[in-house]
Amino acid sequence: MDIPMKTTLSILFAAALSLSSMPAHAVKWDLSTMTCKQFLESGEDNIAVVLTWMDGWYKGDEDNAIIDTEVFIENAKKFGAYCGKNPTVSVVTAADEILGK
Predict the structure, then answer these.
(1) DSSP string covering the chain, please?
(2) How confident is the prediction along the chain (101 residues), in pLDDT tens digits per residue?
(3) Which of 2, 24, 39, 97 has the smallest number of CB atoms closer than 10 Å to its CB?
């Protein structure tokens, strides 16, 4: 099942802006095995956590304490578009394609 681009972008945009409360229970994710489809269907809180992690991971040591919301949202849109077109690709592979490390 392909998720429509408009829906994907709406979910990612809302998640990127909300960054709301963390789940009450501890969860471990192996992002190398999580598919784009699983990511897109994981809910706003989970999407926000993964997007935030990717933002920090791919920045590395540059801009240590800076979150540029404009860049963050643009990258989230690109990531959502890529995942919407490639639902079986792992989240890590998608991130490498979009954010390149």
Answers:
(1) -PPPHHHHHHHHHHHHHH--PPPSS-----TTT-BHHHHHTS-HHHHHHHHHHHHHHHHTTTTTT---HHHHHHHHHHHHHHHHH-TTSBHHHHHHHHH--
(2) 555 666 666 666 666 555 454 555 667 888 889 999 999 999 988 999 999 888 888 877 665 677 788 988 999 999 999 999 999 999 999 999 988 85
(3) 24
Supply φ then ψ for residue 16, to 5 degrees. -65, -35
Q: Which residues of 2-26 are buried (b: 16+ CB within 10 A; e: fewer)?
A: ebeeeebbebbeebbeeeeeeeeee
Query: Closest Cα to residue 69, out of 13, 5, 2, 29?
Result: 13
| pTM for the structure as a whole | 0.69
